[in-house]
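## tool: complex_structure
## caller: assistant
## args:
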Amino acid sequence: MIKLDDAYDENNIFAKILRGEMPNITLYEDDKTLAFMDIMPQAVGHCLVIPKEPAVTFLDLSEDGAAAVMATAKKVAAAVVQAMDAPGFMMAQLNSSAAGQTVPHYHMHILPRHDGLELEFHARKPENMAVLNETAEKIRAHL
Ligand code: 5GP
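## result:
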């Protein structure tokens, strides 16, 4: 259960990714943010942007961290749209379990959208690593 007043858990999965303790398919990285493939994508090309600073929800993010996440999200979303030839895209982020957040490190979802193509269920089905790597390569080509 993730609550709005939770302290940051240094052992959450995204903190481990940031420390290089978990395998990860990186799309983009700078001094304040990391963008990578979601391993249980709701659409082909679903990826996440996280701040490097410890923050559980949007309310915990510094102004600077929030600005950095948005700047990276803008770059990555443009690349996802081009790589997936998407006529639309969705950006979403959930704050606390009450809102559906499952990983307690702030993250922005970027999902390409196509007319008539429904999203897969949230955080339900892990995708094959080879498929994720292939999609990541297509996105990186536009970054
Ligand atoms: P939330 O529910 O917190 O908004 O979203 C968490 C997202 O992280 C989900 O879309 C889920 O598929 C993804 N996710 C969960 N565990 C991992 C992981 O170990 N690696 C990556 N790359 N994504 C993960």
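## assistant note: Residues 13, 36-40, 94, 100-103, 123 surround guanosine-5'-monophosphate (CB under 6 Å). The beta strands are 26-29, 33-37, 47-51, 88-92, 108-113. Handing back to user.
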